[in-house]
Amino acid sequence: xxxxxxxxxxxxxxxxxxxxxxxxxxxxxxxxxxxxxxxxxxxxxxxxxxxxxxxxxxxxxxxxxxxxxxxxxxxxxxxxxxxxxxxxxxxxxxxxxxxxxxxxxxxxxxxxxxxxxxxxxxxxxxxxxxxxxxxxxxxxxxxxxxxxxxxxxxxxxxxxxxxxxxxxxxxxxxxxxxxxxxxxxxxxxxxxxxxxxxxxxxxxxxxxxxxxxxxxxxxxxxxxxxxxxxxxxxxxxxxxxxxxxxxxxxxxxxxxxxxxxxxxxxxxxxxxxxxxxxxxxxxxxxxxxxxxxxxxxxxxxxxxxxxxxxxxxxxxxxxxxxxxxxxxxxxxxxxxxxxxxxxxxxxxxxxxxxxxxxxxxxxxxxxxxxxx
Length: 372
Known about the structure:
By secondary structure, the chain is α/β, with parallel strands linked by helices. The protein has 2 domains: 1-106 and 256-372, no CATH class; 114-248, Isopropylmalate Dehydrogenase, CATH 3.40.718.10. It has 12 helices and 13 strands. The protein has helices at 15-32, 49-53, 58-81, 94-104, 152-169, 190-199, 211-220, 233-246, 291-304, 310-323, 337-352, 356-359, and strands spanning 3-11, 38-46, 86-89, 106-112, 122-127, 136-140, 143-147, 177-181, 206-209, 227-232, 256-261, 270-274, 367-368. Helix 5 (152-169) crosses helix 6, helix 9 packs antiparallel against helix 10 (310-323) and helix 10 crosses helix 11 (337-352). The protein is globular and about 60 Å long.
């Protein structure tokens, strides 16, 4: 029987608990829509920063970081070759992740619709493929030397993706403007020159700004509706949570995002993740907030499993559960992860089961005959 297959990569800390939530919600949605969605799990459990530190000296940490990066990169390449459309990954050590993001040319995408107190929508495309978060470390006597690079080809690829994704986001009008936030003053004018040449191909205005200028304009004027922000990691990593707050788009603990891999070897593979980290201090306590994971499972079920309306159904269930005061402690509640997910599954079943035969649609992409 043909069915979509989704990759799953699990890190330490609360990774196993998050993965269990993902599989349970994905399986519940598949059952309610009368379909099947397979999951293929990476055989390696990847380190968090905390688990790496427990391993001992710097040389061992360096070696394990590279091993994790190499293994996860190969897992992504293998899944892409098998036409797996998406991977859900729990939080893992950032240094390993950025090695993979550099090698597979990743961008992180988050669409922020107008929320409470915001009149504009925004598309954030975070350049994870180059710049100051990427690169290799060389350890000398009491010194860590980190080398990184920017390239015209990658800059063009990231900007081209951002423009295309913006037209998907706003198909009737396209984007109003593109704001690029990079520390370009440190690059001898090269990035400025590249962007000027590349931007001439697009009808939409493209502006390259220093991060502090982007912040000043955001505070003073805000962003116009349908703004695309293409940003280097050194700004976007810090400002993502600020933009979520500014646009009324929820807390980072409740948020999931996409990492789209642009390298031709894996082109089209999308990695989903929670915005929150590995939360090692909550490991084994059944207290991790499951909302972001639930939303990731719903997005994957809808986009790749033929479960039309799954994301909206999950939002209704989340509102129902929260309305009854069923929340994890970080949201002011007293309930466990399991209790929240139990309540959510019950709400989903009550909402969807009577309508299931009317809501299922044929699968349209990336299926394979796989027993996973």
